[in-house]
Amino acid sequence: MKKFFQEIKADIKFKSAGPGQKLTESVGERAPKEKPNQPALRQPRQGPTDEAQMAAAAALARLEQKQPRARGPTSQESIRNQVRKELQAEATVSASTEAPGTNTVPEAKEEGSAHLAVPSVCFTCPLTGATLRKDQRDAHIKEAILSHFSTDPVAASIMKIHTFNRDRDRVKLGVDTIAKYLDNICLHPEEEKYRKIKLQNRVFQERINCLEGTHEFFEAIGFQKALLPVPDQEGPEEFYVLSEAALAQPQSLQRHREQLLVAEPVRATLARQRRVFRPSPMASQFDLPGDFFNLTAEEIKREQKLRSEAVERLSVLRTKAMREREEQREMRKYTYTLLRVRLPDGCLLQGTFYARERVAALYAFVREALQSDWLPFDLLASGGQRLSEDESLAFNECGLVPSALLTFSWDAAVLADIRAAGAEPDSSILKPELLAAIEKLS
Q: Does an H or E element contain 341, and which?
């Protein structure tokens, strides 16, 4: 093949060399006859013939077929390595742009824009009733709990123990230990040893001292710190000692114990942000804020884990049940969902829900807005699928995330009664105060 191309180049060079010369001619005779001051005219270079070009093209095509082509990774291990590199790159970008435990709101849409279906995801503080944004709720709840110490220190310390400490297993262990201390005092009030708790005790240090709010609780129910001598020890040790006034009221200690055991963390509740819109052809168009799509650091880690698991499934044949489970897992990405219900008069009732809430929460939400909340009704998803109030399905399991439009429908028996009474089944059914605040869907 190399020789073939050399012959082609030699042929081209020979043809472009000009007219031939006789070997018997002298050098003087071969000199150009043109005048010295005139530039020599060069003949245009001729390209290869058509036959040579066709032969060269065919040769190049054969060479390309013989050369091995670059191929992507085909083995499972190479695919896994490639995906791991991509996940690591994504994790690096996420770590550099987002602090742990926080959400990054896209700047493309300003908060409170008139074009958004809701300005943002909002929450309600159970202690103050204030409406809070997602980035305000934790700080506001902590401030509310701390301010509650001035009015009810026992309740405030219990809320602090359950709310400020995130490790639920450690909280349960500490609470159970405190309850055991109080049980011993109530069962053996005459025993002085049960009224004293050594602060340097290993159990106290490992289970109680590590929790926020425990010291405030002991002091609120009547314990006081004191330095007491310890047998077989030179210096005194610090103890919590129950006061005589608190010991005289064992029923109060028992009540505080029960409060501590049954308490739950103080969490802001999701604000429904209920709105009513006039009939509009834009009912199925949802312009959602960034809060509906943001992922926390924990959710990003979970997403990366799911992608890693997807690599393992590349070479595995999946059944229908396996595919359905994967689809449901995909829907669990969303934390919130915005739902609208089209009422008989065409008006739209809108509310915000957790994606993991049950369908019964939507029925309760709609029923609260009706004038006749005792009448049975149905809610229909897209395609006429009826959502049963008794089913335990969540919104993400029904495909109602991150937004959906549903249709209100009267129960068949109720609809028959309405028509028998000569009333209009398509009349307004909302409470008057909601109709007075009706908005236009922009």
A: strand 336-342
On whether the CB atoms of residues 361 and 337 are closer than 8 A, the answer is no
Residue type for position 348: L
Query: Which of 139, 140, 203, 131 is closest to 174 using CA atoms?
Result: 203
Interior angle at CA 82, CA 81 and CA 84, nearest 5: 65
Residues ≥6 apart with Cβ < 8 Å to 101: 296, 297, 298
Q: CA 394, 397, 403 angle in degrees (round to 5)?
A: 85
Of 383, 401, 381, 402, the closest CA to residue 391 belongs to 381
Instruction: Return d(Cα 367, Cα 429) in angstroms, integer.
Output: 10
Closest CA relative to residue 356, chosen from 407, 404, 392 = 392
Does a cis peptide bond (omega within 30 degrees of 0) precede residue 402? Answer: yes
Render pLDDT for 117-166 as a digit per residue (tens, 0 to 9): 888 899 999 999 999 998 999 999 999 999 999 999 999 999 999 999 99
- Dist CA 421 CA 441 (whole Å): 33
Q: Which helix (H) or strand (E) holds 224?
A: strand 223-228
Note the pLDDT of residue 262. Answer: 96
Planar angle of CA 26, 45, 16, nearest 5 degrees:
35
Q: Which of 117, 120, 155, 163 is nearest to 139 (CA)?
A: 163
In this prediction the pTM is: 0.64
Q: Per DSSP, what are the bridge partners of residue 439?
A: 277
- Mode of pairing for the β-strands spanning 348-354 and 269-270: unpaired
For residue range 331-341, what is the model confidence (pLDDT) as tens digits? Answer: 567 889 999 99
Name the DSSP class of 189. Answer: T
- What tokens appear for 97 in the block? 């742009």
Say which residue the tokens 């209009």 belong to: 424
In the chain, helix, strand, coil percent, each to 5?
45, 15, 40
Sequence-distant (6+) residues with CB within 8 A of 267 are 126, 141, 163
What number of helices (H) and strands (E) belong to the chain?
16, 12
Residues 6+ away with beta carbon under 8 Å from 109: 115, 116, 287, 289, 290
* pLDDT tens string 331-381: 567 889 999 999 999 999 999 999 999 999 999 999 999 998 888 899 999
